[in-house]
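Morning F.,

Quick status update on the modeling queue. The single chain you submitted on Monday has been processed. Sequence for confirmation:
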Amino acid sequence: MNIAHLLARSATVFPTRPAVCLGEHCLFDYRTLAGRAASIAGYLRNTLGLVPGDRVAAFMTNCPEYLEVLYAIWWAGLVAVPVNAKLHPREMAYILENAEASCLIVSAVLAPDASPLVDRTASVKHMFTTGTAEYIAMLRTTPLTIEPRAPNDLAWLFYTSGTTGHPKGVMQTHRNLLAMTSCYFSDVDQVDPADSIVYAAPISHGAGLYNFAHVLKAARHVVPESGGFDAAELAMLAERVGRLSLFAAPTMVKRLVDHIAASGADPSGFKTIVYGGGPMYAEDIRKALDVMAHRFVQIFGQGECPMCITALSRQHLADRAHPRWLERIASVGVAQSLVEVRVADAAGKTLPQGETGEILTRGDPVMLGYWRNADATAKTLREGWLWTGDLGSFDADGFLTLRDRSKDVIISGGSNIYPREVEEVLLKHPGVREVSVVGRADPAWGEVVVAFVVGTGADAAQLDALCLEHIARFKRPKEYHFLESIPKNNYGKVLKTELRKYFQLTDGGGT
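Structure tokens below.
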């Protein structure tokens, strides 16, 4: 089934329900949203002559037109290639060339950056900018009937963040996206027509993937007037719009919680905050629960299995009476309903509970493979299992705890040290706001543990004592570097590759 049928259904059954809002002001109902998507689809197919399977790139900031563009692409049987609006032009050019995009649709503010790229990219024959006469002409085109698609037809070409080397194009099919949406209802949250999802994180990434559940239930889609994350703006929208849900990286959650705590804003207008995309440390989620109560759900997923490996429900987060509550809130929850998840050694043998290995998953949400990259596909998909590259272990109740990315494990003196375990301890110090732990090459030990710390009121001696109180001596950092901020990519993930470069710029001593 074509994923665009979700919008067509809601537009037929609930035509007058509000669909797209800019801030607290409604712009389109579901009938209008579907009509705009169908007209753009007609233009792409009948005027431009694109054929099913052609790729259309969307280089857009979070804006009201984003949803109609995505659904127009699927409505026409084409493949959406949403591109992070903060990418460097060289990164953008690589994606356009690799995807062989036939058409590019851009936000007005990004048009000056995009235009030169089109001239240098042979596959891109057409570029349209929102708000222009050409775009308005698209909206006036005769609407297209939805193009039928098979379950395994490509729908979304998602490019990984590319923190190492070129990004890879993850092939997400209509089946993948429908399965992910089913898991949202069974494992993450229910959606009521009075609900609103607010896009504070990029629609090109995880936040955009949650549009499907809200389109299916004909709920509202709110684009902040700022176009992104602003804690004060979100608190205002929660108060004025109400029943607000969002997807956010842990760093965003922390900033929102800090704002609510400092300002005394009423958090009751927030319905559900789904966090993922990186580790949420136990101390941070404890504070979030104290300040905003039981509004949180955690998901663990990857572009290769979008938003859909494990989930930690609000019920489990709320169960403070459970004897292992602290362990559970530091986990990423249990396997979602439509996937199998196991922990295996390098040979693929399932490990017993408590032992750490690579996390493997399989099921309908798992990607078709990497776009035109057979070697990477063969390495990542083996005998039906997705090898995630993440390390973790299960407890007796089926709760999965992430240890680290396999490439980030520190091997010192022959012993494995998982950075997250050290980071959790350092965050217990009230003066530490953020921390990231990496390994540094050492001639005697192979690697030594180094901590990068953001905060005030903490010094190396205090942090060393804290580590000695909670973890084995060999795991404690040998160096502490105090920074103003920790480098992150556009989705809020810590760039440990950038932290490692720090060693090249210093003499290695603690600062």
